[in-house]
Design goal:
With 442 residues, the chain is mainly α. The chain has helices spanning 3-39, 58-81, 87-90, 93-99, 102-120, 125-150, 159-176, 180-199, 208-227, 229-232, 258-261, 269-295, 297-307, 309-314, 319-345, 355-368, 373-389, 394-411, 434-441, and strands at residues 42-46, 52-56, 238-239, 347-348. Strand 1 (42-46) and strand 2 form a beta hairpin. The two termini are 44 Å apart. The model is unreliable at 84-91 (pLDDT under 50).
């Protein structure tokens, strides 16, 4: 083929790529216009007489549609040119091998940063409370990661175990006067018991049917807490939940308080810092137990069942016990987090355990990378911290959050951190003798 023919073919291919990208962008722009017309195109206000009026916002609508059009055009053009497919060849293999080990270094940096966070933000109560909230969701994500990420069981009612742990601690502390440290393991045991109860009805279910049953279980727990007013307080919730103490030393201004005992000036921040280290210790305990369980036979059984339950059963693995242990252990850590939430807030109600909480926890696990511990931690930090960053833009916060989730699912379908070290692997390569290779070929 002559140079003129090759050049003509290249130009024709480029024009087809541009035309196809323009067509995709036009379709995306029309869809965006249909979706945003009522959401962003108009704003509802009240006049002086209290009547509802619509204020058109054509500029905002046009800017949003234009952003979708040009963004889709750029994405389609890059995808059609094949740049992304050849991106992996740009990075040398030696560098890619070293980058795989950056996860351990990054995890160590996150741990060090978490340990010094109370000292960095000692005078900023808002950031300390936000850090406690992020760690709570990290712990919940790691607990659900056992069920969803390792065992492959889609649980949309995980908030039920969170609620069981919170109400168990609140009721035990108020009725029997037990401290947080006594009620903490009891709340985890009770949550694990309810996890086993959930596991029995879903032993034969998988996929969408399993998700529906777990979703119904979470709603049943919430409705029981809402309507059993004599026991749970109903919609009024439970208030006056006791705060944790430092080995029996309360965080108050009395002579036997924490500040007076250690010769410090009384400050309410001491209790917040103590709560921060408590949830950090609970989260690290969850991470440590999960990593250890993955290397045990039960952890390998979870992963085998996640990949293929039929093959797992044919190998002689008891899938009944495997599922029940996954539900029980995951629920136990949810109960621990719930008891901490109750003692931190001092007040709980059914409104704190709605389905949206389960959806956020599942999103953290899926977006972070199912089975990846560091990925779940990063996703919790981004999602929970991201909500706070966009608090000033409350009107667009959920829109931006949804677009970010769609983007991650498109470009990183296996999560932010898809690489995961196998549970069992050979420390060194074992050479295969030549005669075995010849027998295999024959």
């Amino acid at each position: 083929m002559s140079n003129e023919g090759a050049l003509a073919t290249t130009q024709k291919k480029a024009s087809l790529d541009i035309a196809g990208a323009f067509k995709d962008a036009a379709v995306a722009g029309l869809v965006a216009f249909g979706l945003f017309s009522l959401i962003l195109g108009f704003r509802t206000d009240q006049n002086m007489s209290g009547q509802l009026i619509l204020t058109p916002r054509p500029g905002l609508l046009a800017a949003s549609v234009a952003a979708v059009f040009f963004g889709r055009f750029a994405i389609a053009l890059i995808a059609r040119s094949g740049v992304l497919r050849n991106a992996g060849a740009i990075v040398p293999a030696s560098i890619r091998g070293r980058m795989q080990h950056l996860g351990t270094f990054f995890a160590a940096c996150l741990l060090i940063f978490a340990l010094i966070t109370p000292f960095l933000f000692y005078s900023n109560r808002y950031l300390l409370d936000l850090s406690i909230l992020v760690l709570t969701y990290v712990m919940l994500g790691w607990g659900l990661n056992i069920v969803v990420g390792l065992a492959g069981l889609l649980d949309l009612g995980y908030v039920a175990f969170y609620a069981v742990g919170a109400y168990s601690f609140a009721l035990l502390a108020q009725n029997f006067g037990w401290s947080f440290w006594i009620c903490l393991p009891l709340a985890g045991i009770l949550a694990a018991f309810w996890g086993v109860l959930l596991g029995f009805p879903v032993l034969r279910l998988r996929g969408d049917y399993l998700a529906i049953v777990t979703l119904a279980f979470g709603e049943i727990i919430r409705l029981v807490l809402l309507n059993w007013q004599d026991f749970t307080g109903g919609p009024n919730g439970i208030s006056g939940i006791p705060r944790p103490s430092f080995f029996g030393i309360p965080f108050d201004a009395s002579e036997t308080g924490f500040a007076a005992t250690f010769g410090l000036e009384f400050n309410t921040t001491h209790r917040v810092i103590f709560l921060f280290y408590v949830i950090l210790a609970l989260a690290l305990l969850t991470n440590y137990v999960t990593i250890r369980l993955r290397r045990l036979p039960i952890g390998r059984a979870w992963e085998a069942m996640r990949e293929d339950e039929i093959a797992c059963r044919s190998l002689g693995i008891n899938t009944t016990n495997t599922k029940l242990t996954a539900f029980a252990i995951g629920a136990m850590f949810g109960g621990f987090a719930g008891s901490f939430f109750a003692t931190r807030q001092g007040f709980i109600s059914p409104e704190s355990f709605v389905f949206m909480e389960s959806a956020i926890i599942v999103a953290i696990v899926v977006l972070g990378g199912m089975g990846s511990q560091i990925g779940v931690a990063v996703a919790a930090l981004v999602m929970i911290g991201g909500f706070e960053l966009f608090r000033e833009f409350e009107q667009f916060r959920m829109l931006i959050f949804g677009l970010a989730m769609v983007g991650i699912m498109v470009w990183r379908p296996r999560g932010l951190v898809s690489h995961r070290v196998p549970s069992v692997f050979l420390r060194q390569e074992k050479p295969i003798p030549a005669h075995i290779v010849e027998e295999a070929r024959q």
